[in-house]
DNA sequence: GTCTATAACTCGATAGAC
DNA sequence: GTCTATCGAGTTATAGAC
């Protein structure tokens, strides 16, 4: 009679938190490469190298896993944007830097960008996740507003508009330009459009309301 | 022994083209109300009031149905935008009108807007539909460029930039502002951000490059 | 040409073995 | 606490009755 030791690799006993993190990483990988729809609990477990049952043992339901994933990926995304941001002398430079950082991440990892969009769309349709789209948006705008305020304080340049208004406008441009890149993949068109957006808005946002 | 007449309503013999249109309408309704993921072939057939087998009889595969649907919905969307467009005296007015028309349709029918986004995301992941996102984007930009050229000819105002450049910028703003509305639902924020975008860009696009 | 019945498969979730 | 085996409901697609 075969024992478990003969038929399968021996698995370690991990603390549940580490097992959760392991599964979240695997879920993000599958979704990034094959799309959110392909990320079944089975596919996630297989990618993580753990048995299917572990998913429900760790998260209870798939919905709970998606919630945890969307939150952790939003954190990761905000943190990544913060690392990419660089110094600038004027508002136009700040706008351009933030937008280029955002677009660089879309260009470097289009699967990850698509994944976040698909997750938000999924959350919008699921009543149990309906609070997440607004939460994520606020997180991005809030982080952008913080960076702008820091820049203003550090550079001594006074802002003609509230930081949140500027941050919101940046978000709008970033998502629009990200979609443009996804749809065309045309670098020249993207750069030209970004230029139009940045220059016009920098002038507009520098005037008092 | 029961005959078919006893157990089910008698169905008419429709030409296959009409049956296809009937199914496309049903598919759009289900996707708009419950999301693309909920639009199974069974749900679509039930909504249309036809037997499940008809879907595969008319379209062969679900992928073929999605392809036909995305194309017809893109047509419908372009046509709807054309009907909403109104006359303006200057470029700023044109920008504002086009954007407000787009946002009005997002506000009036958010489910339809979400559906189009979900369909594009789905197409991007499916090799058999991978040509559609670019095709749809080109369709929108092309239609917007046509309207701008018509306006320029009718009003006698010369454009400082190529119509496609202006049209592309409008698309970027429209998608970005649409996402902003979806995420916040805040009318005041939307109007303020739209104002910033329109004024800045109108000035920028009026200067020679 | 249209529809029913079912095949063949995958899903999320769980009961119970270990 | 961890994993296997399985359940029941869902899916697309099709073979064959009418």
TrEMBL record, chains A, B:
Signal sequence annotation: none
DNA-binding region: 40-59
Cited Pfam families: TetR_N
Keyword set, alphabetical order: DNA-binding
Domain HTH tetR-type: 17-77
InterPro entries recorded: Homeodomain-like_sf, HTH-type_TetR-like_transc_reg, HTH_TetR, Tet_transcr_reg_TetR-rel_C_sf
Protein name in UniProt: Helix-turn-helix domain-containing protein
Native source species: Nocardiopsis tropica
Organism taxonomic ancestry: Bacteria, Bacillati, Actinomycetota, Actinomycetes, Streptosporangiales
